[in-house]
Design brief:
seven-stranded mixed β-sheet; 3 domains; 27 strands; nine-stranded mixed β-sheet; rod-shaped; Alpha-Beta Plaits
């Protein structure tokens, strides 16, 4: 119950920490998501198709070397436009902002003439020739040309409208990236061009170009992007259609969720709510780029230009127009515009649906609950394998959707929920199990052998209030004449004596994997085969009893030596011990707040009575027939049947003379033969003969066994004086515990 409650609290705490991320969508989560999506692009980039409908005519190092530094005279740009038009370009888009007049024209060179008269003469000649801007404007007017515009936060004069605009559904303006104004080309150039397109993109804070808006706001005007405008002009379309939420065929249940798609000619382009698209990039390809020098010098085949959308921009790194993409840290900015059109034309734009965050949150919640539930009920190896497998499955599924369908579904947030939930749950269970094991060691460490404690610590769930019925071997031992031994001892001496006695007794039990149930003064109660199964436990209990016998002899020897050294006498300690095998109730007995692992049952009472029977027989260890039958290889002596106090049925009992080594000795075999003959005489009522045999045995056996035969001789002689009665039974009815 305590473990379940702690785990439930951990589940709630983990949920409170993890789930708000899915609602708040912090930047850290967005960064992680971008990293995952960028990795997907690096693993499966869009392959460049040489038949793609775009080419980039670049002002590269070769062109700069041939025609001088940028900006070039507008007359040269006009020549470039004418060449591209003659080669059949479907659309020519300049990724340059021609915001100033031609600085390389003849009129701009007049100020460099120092002589005033000469300057005036040259001015008359210049006035009769068209300017570079006029020549460039004429070329633009004759070509399907688009010029670049840069949106800015500064208020500017409005630019001429080039494309028509239609909307369906909600007003898209509130959802578009908004700027105060736009810096465009010189008015005559802007008027001449068929299209004007914004070159801006939506930057992430790491400045990687992942999203590019197809339409934006410049003041009150809606401005198409350079790529969209180039695509419009290539198709000969006069306008674009913006479809937003609640348009016909769009279900938003009355909510304004933003832009859904933009239609231009034959292309209906799915967008994000801010009219942005996510190109699926390809690596830079030499086949995409054409040097402006080669175009101007007529070294470009018509097949490279005809029917294509041509983007003119800076390819020379020194011109500074570089961007970073998920694939490459440095690419020419003009390449980004070309790749947008390539992604649109090939249907390989990446899409992040507006329902993606909601689905990811649901998947995260389900995965979290699944892993937390599995962690609680399944074996540790199963849950430890399930968590990484689930994460791998999420990433594999997400990558499949990316690669095959261009869909961006985030596996990172659900994976964080799995990992976070697993860590919370695993740590909680580990702490609970550690606490349970510590409790086990505290509860059993002093009473159970270390080997058993280690095994029990692996199964602390057994320490619940209540019990189970198991077959146990029970040992009950007690000191004889404790009052006489302790007489004259101080409290300190008595404490030292008890420690000296109980320590080796306990060690003997624990060494044989027994469990010490309790100490009752000078008495020791122990058992075998609980809390864990102990193989051959009756035999281990008998071995423990023999070790206790030897330990008591050593204790008496040490006490005698110490007493002799101090000039005193030490009364030797004697022990009585009972062993019985039978079913017992074993478990935690007590209350919820305080309980002890203990045993109850008739077998426990009988073991106690057998210890009392050892007094009547004047021997130290008495075991039941159940113990003797379970461990027959020891040196046993049959003591007959006794009826102990509180029991109506008789119990067959045995004394133990020694271990299995002694059982095979010739001296023991002769001893037991004489003992068995004595027992036969007794069983048939020949009491005098049995007494004579007991007397002979008392004289022939070594200490401490003469006491046993002395007690038996006395009993047999008493029976002989009373005579054999008709209803006589060989069962010895004991009158004391």
């Amino acid at each position: 119950m305590k473990r379940r409650r702690a785990y439930l609290l951990a589940l709630v705490a983990a949920a409170a920490l993890i789930f708000p991320w899915g609602v708040i969508q912090p930047r850290a989560l967005d960064d992680l998501r971008n990293f995952v999506f960028d990795t997907f692009q690096r693993l499966a980039p869009r392959g460049y198709d040489p038949e793609a409908p775009t080419r980039v005519v670049g002002v590269d190092e070769k062109s700069l070397s041939a025609y001088g530094q940028w900006p070039w005279p507008r007359m040269r740009l006009a020549e470039l436009v004418d060449r591209l038009r003659e080669l059949g370009a479907a659309s020519i888009a300049f990724d340059f902002i021609f915001a100033e007049a031609d600085r390389a024209g003849a009129s701009q060179l007049l100020d460099a003439i120092p002589d005033g008269r000469a300057r005036a003469e040259v001015a008359k000649l210049v006035a009769k020739t068209p300017s570079g801007d006029q020549i460039f404007a004429k070329a633009l007017a004759q070509a399907p040309a688009t010029l670049g515009v840069t949106l800015t936060d500064a208020v500017t004069a409005p630019l001429p409208t080039k494309s028509g605009l239609a909307t369906a559904g909600d007003d898209p303006a509130p959802f578009l990236a908004s700027f105060a104004g736009a810096v465009g080309p010189e008015p005559k150039l802007a008027q001449a061009a068929q299209g004007l397109g914004a070159t801006n993109w939506l930057p992430d804070h790491d400045q990687i170009v992942r999203r590019v808006p197809l339409v934006t706001r410049a003041g009150e005007a809606i401005m198409p992007s350079l790529a969209l405008e180039a695509l419009r002009i290539a198709q000969g379309e006069s306008g674009i259609v913006i479809r937003s939420s609640n348009a016909s065929g769009q279900t938003a249940f009355g909510k304004q969720t933003g832009v859904n798609a933009i239609k231009v000619g034959a292309f209906e382009i799915a967008t994000g709510p801010n009219a942005e698209v996510r190109p699926r990039y390809s690596h830079s390809a030499a086949a995409r780029d054409i040097s402006a020098k080669d175009v101007l010098e007529g070294r470009v085949g018509r097949d490279q230009i005809e029917g294509r959308i041509i983007f003119v921009g800076a390819l020379a790194t020194g011109l500074g127009d570089v961007r970073a993409t998920p694939l490459e840290p440095v690419v020419p900015g003009v390449d980004v515009h070309a790749q947008i059109v390539e992604s649109i034309a090939s249907g390989s734009l990446l899409a992040r649906p507006d329902w993606a965050p909601g689905l990811e949150f649901i998947v995260a919640a389900l995965a979290f609950l699944l892993i937390m539930g599995l962690l609680f009920i399944a074996p540790p190896l199963v849950s430890a394998a399930a968590a990484p497998l689930a994460v791998i499955g999420l990433f594999a599924g997400s990558f499949y959707l990316f690669d095959r369908h261009g869909m961006l579904l985030d596996p990172a947030y659900p994976s964080l929920a799995i990992v976070g939930g697993y860590l919370f749950g695993a740590v909680t269970l580990w702490r609970a199990e550690t606490s349970a094991r510590r409790h086990v060691r505290q509860a059993f460490g002093k009473f159970v052998s270390p080997a058993v404690v280690d095994r029990l610590a692996e199964h602390p769930e057994r320490l619940v209030l209540g019990g189970e019925t198991r077959e146990l071997t029970v040992l009950f031992s007690d000191l004889r004449n404790f009052s006489g031994i302790s007489e004259g001892m101080s409290a300190r001496e008595l404490t030292q004596f008890m420690n000296d006695y109980l320590t080796p007794m306990t060690d003997a039990i624990l060494e044989q994997e027994g469990t010490v149930d309790k100490y009752m003064g000078d008495a020791v109660v122990a058992f075998w085969n609980a809390p864990l199964d102990i193989d051959d436990h009756p035999r281990k209990a008998v071995l423990a009893a023999l070790k206790m016998r030897d330990a008591l002899m050593e204790l008496n020897a040490h006490r005698a030596e110490a007493a002799a050294a101090s000039g005193h006498d030490a009364q030797p300690a004697a022990m009585g011990l009972g062993l019985h095998l039978g079913p017992c109730s074993v478990g935690n007995m007590g209350s919820i707040r305080r309980f002890d692992y203990s045993i109850l049952g008739d077998a426990v009472n009988l073991a106690s009575r057998l210890e009392g029977a050892s007094k009547a027989f004047q021997t130290d260890i008495v075991a039941s027939a159940a113990v003797r039958d379970a461990a027959p290889d020891f040196a046993w002596l049959d003591l007959g049947r006794v009826r102990v106090v509180g029991k109506s049925e008789a119990t067959q009992v045995y004394a133990i003379a020694g271990d299995s080594g002694m059982a095979g000795s010739d001296s023991y075999v002769r001893w037991r033969k004489s003992h068995d003959l004595m027992r036969e005489d007794y069983e048939v009522g020949r009491f005098e003969a049995a007494a004579e045999r007991a007397s002979a045995l008392a004289r022939s056996v070594s200490e401490p066994w003469p006491a046993l035969y002395g007690a038996l001789e006395e009993r047999y002689l008493t029976l002989a004086r009373e005579g054999l009665k008709d209803n006589w039974s060989s069962v010895w009815n004991l009158s004391s515990k």
